[in-house]
Amino acid sequence: MFQLLEKYIKDRASVEPAMLDYICSHFSLVKTRRNQLLLQYGDTCQHYYFVNKGAIRLFTLNKEGQEASRYFAFEGQFGTALPSFIEQKPALEYMQTIAPSQLLQISRKDFFLLVDTIPAFAAIYRQIIETGFITAQKRIYGFQGFDALEKLQWALQQQPDFLARVSNKMAASYLGISPSTLSRLKARL
């Protein structure tokens, strides 16, 4: 159950086997169905998730009810509604699994206990935050000057199996283009 998480940790930090077991003991397995909400808009996020199998999506809805996907976490990645998780304020987004998923869940209390008491886990948390920040910055600044094809190419460079893992509607909302434009672009690839 913890093999993928253990590999993730060992790839990023030097951790003794007993410490690795201790870290993993703070996570519990959660099995979800497709499109199951992990967090409602307006609720305060209390958990961080590591994706063993499946995928998590963070998204918002505009006034017309149209979705805008902000982030996807696939196998071997962490995902949460980070602003709500850190600040303990109501989330301004939804978090859902987009496929039947097996997630390793850790409570906010336990997560920050590990960050505060285990330097290797604190370093991993810093890497997660830094990678997320850099990716978000590249997406924001890159998308400002990118045309639709360049946006798609950027997404495929970041996550090569992106189009195979998410629906056209979700991918288009992430890229900020229409589903019909995405379909035309996919035909050109």
From TrEMBL:
Domain of life: Bacteria
Cyclic nucleotide-binding domain ranges (all copies): 14-115
Lineage, uppermost ranks: Bacteria, Pseudomonadati, Bacteroidota, Cytophagia, Cytophagales
SUPFAM superfamilies assigned: cAMP-binding domain-like
Name of the protein in question: cAMP-binding protein
Source organism of the structure: Rufibacter radiotolerans
Residues making up the signal peptide according to the UniProt record: none
InterPro entries in the record: cNMP-bd_dom, cNMP-bd_dom_sf, RmlC-like_jellyroll
